[in-house]
Structure formats: structure tokens, C-alpha cells
Amino acid sequence: MPTSLPVSGNNFRVEIDDEGIAHVVFQPAGGTPVTDARGHGDLAAIWPQLAAHPQVKVILIRSEGRAFCAGGDLQMVEDMLDSDAARMRVMREGRDIVQGMIDCDKPIVSAINGAAVGAGLAAALLADISIAASNARLIDGHTKLGVAAGDHAAVIWPLLCGMAKTKYYLLLCETITGEEAERIGLVSRVVAPELLQEEALSIARRLAAGSAHALAGTKRALNHWLRAAWPAFEASLLSEMANFSQPDAREGLAAVKEKRAPNFGGGQ
Asked: What is the CATH number of domain 12-193?
């Protein structure tokens, strides 16, 4: 019988199936999944639980929505603009998401459909094997919001697709399709949208049938490349949180709400 792990919010659920695959499922079904303040905290806390769970062999992150996960909701962004305590909480949680996924010795697979933004994009790309639908849209929206790209990109994008592509997409906030993401090395594979869930589950099953010790040792060794980049990640995260106290972030949020281009002051 499948086992569920409790989470405090309703942004996603966690179910462990009979094959030892822990399904981290963004929801609601058919809607646009986001992370609110509670969901962001849940996403930060779940990785050590899954890493220690005796039934879990592999983790599959997927979505039942028309998007993978569209990132933090506007209320969470407003809270960060108004409250230093909220910024510090989100900073700690952002660090815990990245560190939790890197330190989890169990393989993580992501199935990326629709838009993946913010914490959703972090979860998608920090997975050990990322499968994207050809029409998926990967968007690191930080600089468009007026804040530094701080939640995961500095630790992994340069390793995945090189510094030139990293700077191009992060500085310009360009949307990356699933096909382009595979071409530049940002994701492991791209498949037709109708094959996405089947392909990701097939890969998760292959990993679940493998040697847990061999997979863990390989992942742990490879992830030292990410640990070596940790100072860059910390610097990006601190810059992001500092930017939330500056006027550009308020203008960025106003532009999102009003569906227009932001008019930043241009100062440093």
C-alpha cells in the first residue's frame, strides 16, 4: 500500500509507492501550482525526511498541474518586501532546499511540464536526472523582479550549461523551452509532452532497481562539484535578500501585477 508523508500545506503532497519511489507531486491538478509561505517551508523540510526514510529508494518530482510549479505566490513576495523577518525565513528555507537536495544520497528525478519558475525551477534543475517536456518553459524570473538570481542558479547553472549561457539567460530573464534546455545541457533529456510522465517514471523505476550503495556513492562524489560552488550560492542568496529591501523589487512586483514591463531606476 502506498504511504503518504504529511506536509503542513497543500502546495504539494508526498506519496511513497510499493516500488520505493517517493512521488513529490505539485498541485492542484489542472491548475497552476505555486509555493506559498507554508509550501516553501514544506519544500525546505522534506529532503532530510526522504533521505532518512527506510522505504524510499528514489524520489520523483512531478506535477499534476498545467505547470510544473510557477514559484512563490505574490503574497509571499509582498511579505518579503515588507518584513526583514520574512526575508530571513525565506533565505534559510532557500538554503535548506538547495542543501537538502544536494545532500540527499537518494537519486532524484524531475518531470518538468509547463512553466517551472522560482523554487519550482530549483527543484527541477537540482534533480539528478531532469526530464523536460519539449514545450516546457524554464524561467528564472529573479532579475525581472528586480532581485539577484539567488535561489539555486549560481550553484548549478554554470556546471550544467556553461557561464556564457548562464549569464545570458539569468541576466536577460529569457524563457528557455524544454528543447532549448536540452540543447544547452540544462536538463538531462527532452521528450514529447504526452510521454513525459511515463518516461520519468520509467527512469525512476530503473534507479529504484539499482544498487543503492553504488548510486549514493556516485551521487555523493559528483555533488562535491556543487559543494565547491557553495560560496557563490551564498553570495547570490544574500544579494537576493538584500535586493528585496530596495525600490526595484517593489517596482518589479508592481509590474508583474499590472502585466507590464518594469521601470527600474538603474542605480546600483
From this structure: 3.90.226.10
